[in-house]
Amino acid sequence: MSIIFDNSNGEGAKQVLARLKLVTQLASTRKDLLALPAGVGSLAPRLALVREANRLRAELGELDGPALSDDPNSPHYRFRDTGEVSGSRKELAASAIRLAKSNGDAVKVTDIDWQAIEENPREAEELISKGNLFGETDWEQLQQGGMDPAAGFLVDKVFAAIGPKPAGDAAPQLRQDYAWGLQAIRARMQACTSVSDVREALEVIRDEMIGTNLNEQEAERYTALMQQRQQAADRNVAIRQAIDAAQTEMYQAGAELRQAQYKIESRGRRGWKPDPTLAEALADAQAAYSEAEARWSSALKDTKDERETLRATMLDTHNQAALIVAEARERNSRESQECRSWRSFGERFAKLVNYRRHGGSDAFRGHVTNAAAGKVNDWSWADKSKASQPKRATKREVGFQLQVADSFVRQGGREISVGSTAELKERMGFREVQSGNWVLNDPNSARFHVEQTAAAMVDMADVLGINEHHLGLGGRLAMAFGARGRGGKNAARAHYEPVQRVINLTKMGGGGALGHELLHALDNIIPSLVNETPGGKGEFASANPELLPEGPLRDAFAAFRRALTQGDKPLLEIIKLKPGDGNLARHNIDGRRGSRVADAIREAGNATDAVKAVRAIYGDRTDKRSRKTIADWVRLAAAYYHDGEEQVELETGPEVSDFMRSAQLLDAGSTGKYWSSVEEMAARAFQSYLEDKMSERGMRNDYLSALADNKHYSGGSSPVKPFPEGEERLRINAAIDELFDTLKRERVFEKAVANKALLDSIFDCNSGAAALQ
What positions does the domain Large polyvalent protein-associated occupy (predicted)? Predict the structure, then answer.
C-alpha cells in the first residue's frame, strides 16, 4: 500500500508521522477484524474492533460531521452507531444470533448485546427464542461423557418442555431471564449422568421456581420463631405428659375397681355368700379410683390457662413464620434470577418439574417410570429420523401411588406436640421408631416427620374412637422414616413390611400414605392378636376373614370384604386365541346347525352375549370334563366374532363391585394381582373412609391421607378409579364403621396392651426390634 501525504495544508513532519501511525493502526485493526472466526463467540471482540476502527477513521478525518464527543448521551458520541451498515452493533448482534442458530450453537447470555437488540423491541422479541438461542444437543458427546441413555431420554424431554419464547408480558428483563435460564438449564441437565441425577436436579429447580429460599435476615427471624415455638411445644408436651400420666393412673385404678366389682358380682351370680375381703378390696379400689380421678381433674384445671397460652404462642409463631415464607416467595419472584428464569419457561415446564405432584405432567411421570424401570436401554431415541421412542408407560404402570401430596395441610384436630422419636414411640405405643440418612442428616426433616406422624395418629385415633396409644398394638408395630429402602423401581414407595411389622414412610412417596399403611398393619396383625399365634406374613383378615375364630369380629371382617367386592358389574375376562381358532369356530358353529350351543353362539350376534349363552347352557357344572368343554366353547365363541385377534377382552366375568372392576383394570385384567387384591383394596378404601370422616368433622390431615378421591385421576385419555365412589363408598364406609365398633366392643386393642408377656413371646418383639437395626 502506498501513502501520499499532502504538505500543502502546512502539515509538519510530526503531523505526518502521527497520521502514518493512525493509518497503520487502522490497517492492523481491519486485518484483525477480517481474521476473526465466524460465530457468536466472536461477537464481543468484533464489536470492540469496529469501535476502534471508527475511532481511527474519525481522527483521520474520514468521518465527516461536527466534533466528536466522549459523552455517551451526546448525539455526537464518539462511539455511536453510524448507520445500519455491515458490522453495526444491532446488525452484528442479530446476525450473530442467527449465525449461531444455523450452526446449531448455543448462545450464552453474555454473548448477546442486549442494549443493541433492545433498540428494536419487536426484533428483540423475535430473536430471543429457544429456537435461536438454545442450539443443538450433542448426544454423542454426552454419551461419551458418561450419560446413560435413560438419563439422556429424560433430559431430552426436559428440554422439549421449555416454552419456545418467554412466557408472560414481552419485556427486556423477561427476555434476559429467559436467555439466562436456557444457558443454566442446559448446564445443569447435561451434568446429569443417571436417572437419579435428573430427578434430583429437577427437585432443586422446582424449589428455586417456587421461590421459598430465605435470605440471611429472614432465616434468622424464622429460626428464632421456630425456636420460640419449640420451647412452647416442649413445655406443652411436659404438661401433657403429666396429665396423661395422671389419666393412665386413673384408668389403671378404674380397671382395678371394675375387677373388684366383677369378683363380687360373680360370687353373687353363683349364689355364694359374700366375702368380706372382697368387700374391703372394693372399698380400697373405690377410694384409689376417686383419688386418681381427683389428681387427673386437678392436673387439667391447674394447667388450663398455661396450656391455652402455649397453644396461642405456637399458633402465633407458626403464622409469623408462614408470613416470612410468603414474603420470601414474593421477593424471590422479583429478585431471584433462578426463580424468574424457570418461571419464564412457561406452564408446560412448570408441570414437568411438578411431575410427582398433583396436577403435574402425567406424561413425564410415565417417562420417569420407563427410565427407572430400565425400559430405555439404548440411544435409539436420539435419532429423530426414526420412530424409536420408547413405548409410553401405561397409567397402570405409572401407578396412582405416584400422586403424592405437594404440601401437608392439617385442619382441626387436637393440639399435639412431640419433641423426639422416643416420645413418639412412647405416645403411640410403637415398638421402635427408625430413621434413614435423609432424616438423620437433617434435623428439620426429622422434626417435621415426627410431628406430622404424631398429629396424623391422633387425628386417626379420634376419627376411629380409639386411644392413639393403642394404635401401636402394644408395641407390636414399628415405624420407620425412609430407613428400609431396598432400591429398585418401588424403592420410593411407602410400604408395610409384614415380616418385621414395620411401616416405612419414604422421602419420595410417603406423603399421605400413613393411614393406608396402618390399615395394612392392623389387617395383618389383628389375626395374630386374636388367635395368640405369630401368624403369617401373607395373612390379612380383610382378604380371609376365616383366619379369625367364629364370632362378631370375623363377621365384621366378612361384611367388610363383601362391601369391597360384591356388586353388579361384570369383571373383564381376557380370552386368548390361537392361530386357526377362527376357522375352527366357523367349522363348529356354522357347520353344526341344530346344535344347541352352536345355535346360541350364532344367534347371540356378538361375542359378549355368545359367551354368556354358553355359560347359561352349561350352568354350574364344575367337573373337569365340563370345565374343559365350557372353556373350548368360550374360546370358539370369541374367535367366531373376533377372527384374527390374539386376545379378546369381554365383560363376561363374575359380577363384582365397580371398585373391584376398576381395580382389575389397573391390574391389566388380572384379578387379585395387586391393585385388585382385597387387602390392597381395603387399604385404599380406608383412606377414603378417613378423608370422609375427617371432612364430616371439619378436619383434614394430608399426612394421614391425601388425594383419596377419583377426581384426582380423571384426566388423560384413560382415566382410572383407584378409590371407591358413590353409593359403594358409602356402603364401604358403613362396613368400616361396624368393623371398628366391633374391635372396640371386643376390646382387641386393650387386650393387646394388657397381656404383654404372652404377646411378647408370640411376636418375639425383642428379635423384631433387633431386626430394625
Answer: 666-746
